[in-house]
Fold this sequence. Notes:
Subcellular location: Membrane
Order of helices and strands: HHHEHHEHHH
Membrane topology: Multi-pass membrane protein
Keywords: Membrane, Methyltransferase, Transferase, Transmembrane, Transmembrane helix
GO molecular function: protein C-terminal S-isoprenylcysteine carboxyl O-methyltransferase activity
CATH topology: Four Helix Bundle (Hemerythrin (Met), subunit A)
Strand content: under 5%
Main location: membrane
Largest sheet: 2 strands, antiparallel
Number of strands: 2
Strand order of the largest sheet: 1-2
Number of domains: 1
Amino acid sequence: MKISARLALFAIVVTLAYLGLAVWGMGGFAAFFSHAPLVVVVLATLVMAIASLFTEVNLSSGEREDRANRWVLPAFGVIGLLSGFLPAYTDRIDFWTFGGEGVRWLGVLLFIIGGALRLWPVFVLGNRFSGLVAIQPGHRLVTDGIYRKLRNPSYLGMLITAVGWALAFRSGVGLLLVALTMIPLVARIHAEEALLRAQFGNEYEAYCSRSWRLIPGIY
């Protein structure tokens, strides 16, 4: 089973709205697409959005959910709206920007790498990958492949993508928004780990002892 039609439509609308905010922030299509790195960012975003339509990501509360963590969804939404517009806008007015086209291309590279890392685990987990903190029917712990040493590779991919987006606009404000994202993200990680620990007990504890939570060698 693939992503539901309703969720697919939502993903498409959000993607186009996000890109639209960036185009608006840059002052229109001509200004935005005058930068080759930003053209590549748009193409990469569309490819990622299309790829996501072939995943089994869902919003199912499954057999067991930590409903107290749902506050992170609107938090991510607000930060996402700001990230869509502000980096592009600060780029246009040259507020707290740095570097030149080299920084933009570095951002493109990170954006693509982060996007791949974000989507890879989604395909690995299948219908166990929910937008909610929940245990799905038939849920089992995955500790091999991309999860062997890293417990939250998709979240790391999300952060790398966000940094890449900010750098594509040479935006210091964009990097601050990435730092702000860490607040709901860390809360989400702790909620997920608490639920997995309760579900899988010693098996999960053993996995934690030999893996990193988010950034290898650091956290």
